[in-house]
TrEMBL record:
<protein>
    <submittedName>
        <fullName>DNA polymerase III subunit epsilon</fullName>
    </submittedName>
</protein>
<dbReference type="InterPro" id="IPR036397">
    <property type="entry name" value="RNaseH_sf"/>
</dbReference>
<dbReference type="GO" id="GO:0008408">
    <property type="term" value="F:3'-5' exonuclease activity"/>
</dbReference>
<dbReference type="GO" id="GO:0005829">
    <property type="term" value="C:cytosol"/>
</dbReference>
<dbReference type="GO" id="GO:0045004">
    <property type="term" value="P:DNA replication proofreading"/>
</dbReference>
<dbReference type="GO" id="GO:0003676">
    <property type="term" value="F:nucleic acid binding"/>
</dbReference>
<dbReference type="InterPro" id="IPR012337">
    <property type="entry name" value="RNaseH-like_sf"/>
</dbReference>
<dbReference type="InterPro" id="IPR013520">
    <property type="entry name" value="Ribonucl_H"/>
</dbReference>
<dbReference type="Pfam" id="PF00929">
    <property type="entry name" value="RNase_T"/>
</dbReference>
<feature type="domain" description="Exonuclease">
    <location>
        <begin position="10"/>
        <end position="183"/>
    </location>
</feature>
Amino acid sequence: MYPRRTQSQIIRVIDLETTGSPPPVHGVCEVGWQDVALGADGRWELQGEGGNILVNPGRPMPPITQAVHHIRDEDVADAPWWQDVARQVLDPWPRRIALAAHRAAFEEQFCTPALTHGAEWICTWKCALRLWPDSPSFSNQVLRYWRKPAGLEHERGLPAHRAFPDAYVTAHHLRDQLNEASVAQLIEWSKAPGLLPRVRYGPDRGKEWREIEEESLVKFMTDRDPDIRFTAETEMARRRGGGHVGRISPQELLL
């Protein structure tokens, strides 16, 4: 009897450059990717070279977004359409167990379930809020220079705001997160709003949530921002005897 083939444990990091947000008003002009795989030693590491593909967005490139990624209309005039390249990048064989991106909600607007085969997503931004709450900021690049991930080749992660270099940097954050918490835990955190370590604005700006008065906390519970509202509700639940805001203990990382 032949041994059963086990599925490779691979997660694909995706990064998109676009003409703006959201679709269908705006379109993809570049997609980049980098895989992260579970090794035989039980540790996650980057796998393969990754890559990028320029995409014709089907509309002119606004100057404001050109100033971010420096992709011009003439650079993508002869490039393939998004629907012609998306599936090969987002749903390759062997199938990845999940997709990941930094602030994945942006990529998910363009990478629809029909294109991803209904893949689960990991948001490395939301997971960084949980795992590394002491970071001065949680952007892809601030985390890069604050944490200094092992093995990250500086030039390979440049220029910023291009699809492959950004995916490459994000993959190092994902690798380190996977080596601290389970895949299931990262997916669970990614499905919830962001749990913010510190207050973003107002008289209590910069304070940890446990430091603010309850009167202020109640006001944040009606904020229009879902991340602020969720964090305030979680802090209130902690004060009432359940849940917490801040650093996660090793025991809590295991599902």
